[in-house]
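Re-running the complex after MR caught last week's input typo. The corrected sequence lines follow. Everything else is unchanged.
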Amino acid sequence: MPLYEYYCEPCNGIFEALRSIRVASEPSPCPVCSREGKRVMPTSFAAFTFRDGYPRRIPDRGTYWHLGKEVKNLITGPVRPNEHPEVNKPEPAPKPAKGDLNAERERRRLERQQKQIEAKEQQAAAAAYEARVKKRPPQLDV
Ligand SMILES: [Zn+2]
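Corrected-run output:
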């Protein structure tokens, strides 16, 4: 029995099936989802197009290929050479040590304290200014 190619639309995949010539043109069940795949000629899918400078198989499902791996987006930001953010997940940020956490907490506490002190000083300065102004005898315009 000859080998024929079929296209499954839901899977967007081509599969081959050994069938007799008599039924070759009839749809064949997809090995993945077992829905009926339509017969395609081998040349039907040799076609490809270029989009954004990348060769795309037709039908185009809007994805790209990065070193043989299918990815959804093109690289936009800076990455390490030959790596793709969807394929090579970025390394997680190093977990801060307990000592670092405590130091950070202490730094923030001191910062808050410093702000409170500054606020109090400003209030005191404003009060002192206010008192000086009140004590001063009224100035006469000449
Ligand atoms: Zn299928």
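None of the earlier attempt is carried over here. The radius of gyration is 36 Å. Residues 8, 10-11, 30, 32-33, 35 surround zinc ion (CB under 6 Å).
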